[in-house]
């Protein structure tokens, strides 16, 4: 069953509006299709991030253009504990957290569905994400699929959504190309039609860089940069400024390129080595969510992405317990980064995903 067919069952839908062109167009599409459409903006933080100050103003303007109600929900405290504290704790522990999937489940979709159902009497929410949802009548599960526009596909960041959240959500842009979104926004005369894309995390946009954001919370803590034999090659000013696979900005002279291959929080050391030492044949993934299929009892074959823009690679997924799996790559992979998401697919279908553990 396609997303388009699912939307026909709705009479009222609450659309999450960030103030960008995608969510604005999603709201305009549903409104023009005759649904009772309500705009909802989550106030996440102070600053100039697209989802906050400027975004709230643009979202309110879009609702005024469309002639629909606009609600703003203050969840800054939730964002602080679930995202800001999560990032700071992760970086201080020597991992590189991925905030977007965490934010989607606990900060955005969850609170939106609750507010829509309890305060606005709507069983459905919609967002401007590029992904698709369908119901499988045989398995009775809601399946998360890649968007038709593979260049904009955001299913990687949505792997942690539960069945209840998928049941309550529609993605009006899932079967569209980004160029179609821009074209429709212009045809509808939306204020956001020519608004530039958000190029980075909202926290990075509002602070200028991830380094600047982290420096607000984590004090400089100088230490050694060492090779795999323990030889000191240079100095660093805090391991939170480094991530696995990093090559640039090490400040270490060597005859061959060096990469960060380890972050030793106990001894406050950044460990570097050549590219061969930055590859792994497998990794353990925790906090696993099985999306489109039930948890398997035996190993399965799939394709995995270990970064948003990485190409899917063939793997074997070995279940360990209810919340962990072992991901065995057919070929060793470079820069397998603890804290980032590993999301496995069967073709266009998201099977599951979780967070790469620090070994």
Quick take:
The chain is α/β, with parallel strands linked by helices.
Return the CATH class of the largest domain: Alpha Beta
Q: How much helix, percentage-wise, in residues?
A: 25-40%
Order of helices and strands: HEHEHEHHEEEHEHHHEEEEEEEEEE
Oligomeric form of this entry?
single chain
* C-alpha end-to-end distance: 41 Å
Query: Spans of 5+ residues with little confidence (pLDDT < 50)?
Result: 1-6
CATH topology of the largest domain: Rossmann fold
Radius of gyration: 22 Å
Total domains: 3
Beta-strand residue fraction? 25-35%
Shape: globular
Cross-sheet strand order for the largest sheet: 12-15-14-13-16-17
How many strands appear in the DSSP assignment?
17
Overall mean confidence score, pLDDT: 91
* CATH H level, superfamily name of the largest domain: HUPs
Characterise this structure.
Strand 8 and strand 9 (232-236) form a beta hairpin. Helix 2 (21-32) crosses helix 7. The protein has 3 domains: 3-207, HUPs (Rossmann fold, 3-Layer(aba) Sandwich), CATH 3.40.50.620; 219-273, Roll (SH3 type barrels); 278-356, Beta Barrel (Elongation Factor Tu (Ef-tu), domain 3), CATH 2.40.30.10. The strands form 4 sheets. Strands 12-15-14-13-16-17 form a 6-stranded antiparallel β-barrel. Strands 3-2-1-4-7 form a 5-stranded parallel sheet, with helices on both faces. The protein has a 4-stranded mixed sheet with strand order 9-8-11-10, with no helix packed on it. The chain is built from 9 helices and 17 strands. The radius of gyration is 22 Å and the shape is globular. Helix content is 27%, strand content 30%. Residues 1-6 have low confidence and may be disordered. It has helices at residues 3-7, 21-32, 53-66, 76-92, 99-119, 163-167, 178-187, 202-207, 210-215; strands spanning 12-16, 36-43, 70-74, 124-126, 131-136, 141-146, 169-170, 223-226, 232-236, 259-264, 269-273, 279-290, 300-305, 313-321, 324-334, 341-346, 349-356. With 359 residues, the protein is an alpha/beta fold.
């Amino acid at each position: 069953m396609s997303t388009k067919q699912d939307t026909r069952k709705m009479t009222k839908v609450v659309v999450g509006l960030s103030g960008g062109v995608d969510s604005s167009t999603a709201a305009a599409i549903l409104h023009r299709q005759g649904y009772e459409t309500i705009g909802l903006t989550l106030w996440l933080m102070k600053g100039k991030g697209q989802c906050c100050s400027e975004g709230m103003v643009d979202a309110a303007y879009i609702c005024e253009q469309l002639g629909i109600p606009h609600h703003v929900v203050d969840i800054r405290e939730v964002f602080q504990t679930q995202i800001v504290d999560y990032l700071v704790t992760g970086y201080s522990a020597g991992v590189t957290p991925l905030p977007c999937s965490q934010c989607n489940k606990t900060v955005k979709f969850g609170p939106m569905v609750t507010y829509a159902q309890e305060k606005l009497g709507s069983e459905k929410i919609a967002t401007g994400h590029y992904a698709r949802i369908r119901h499988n009548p045989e398995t009775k599960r809601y399946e998360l699929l890649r968007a038709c526009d593979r260049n904009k596909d955001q299913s990687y960041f949505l792997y942690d959504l539960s069945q209840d959240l998928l049941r309550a959500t529609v993605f009006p842009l899932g079967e569209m190309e980004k160029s179609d979104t821009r074209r429709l926004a212009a045809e509808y005369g939306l204020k956001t039609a020519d608004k530039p894309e958000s190029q980075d995390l909202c926290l990075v946009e509002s602070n200028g860089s991830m380094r600047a954001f982290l420096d607000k919370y984590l004090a400089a803590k100088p230490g050694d940069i060492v090779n795999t034999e323990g030889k000191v090659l240079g100095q660093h000013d805090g391991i939170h400024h480094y991530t696995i696979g990093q090559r640039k900005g090490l400040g270490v002279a060597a005859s061959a390129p060096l990469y960060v291959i380890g972050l030793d929080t106990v001894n406050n050391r950044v460990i570097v080595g050549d590219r061969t030492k930055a590859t792994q044949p497998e990794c353990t993934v925790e906090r696993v969510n099985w999306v489109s299929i039930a948890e398997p009892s035996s190993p399965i074959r799939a394709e995995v992405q270990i970064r948003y823009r990485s190409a899917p690679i063939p793997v074997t997924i070995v279940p360990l317990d209810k919340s962990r799996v072992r991901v065995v790559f057919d070929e060793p992979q470079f820069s397998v980064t603890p804290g980032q998401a590993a999301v496995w697919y069967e073709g266009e279908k998201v099977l599951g995903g979780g967070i790469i553990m620090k070994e």
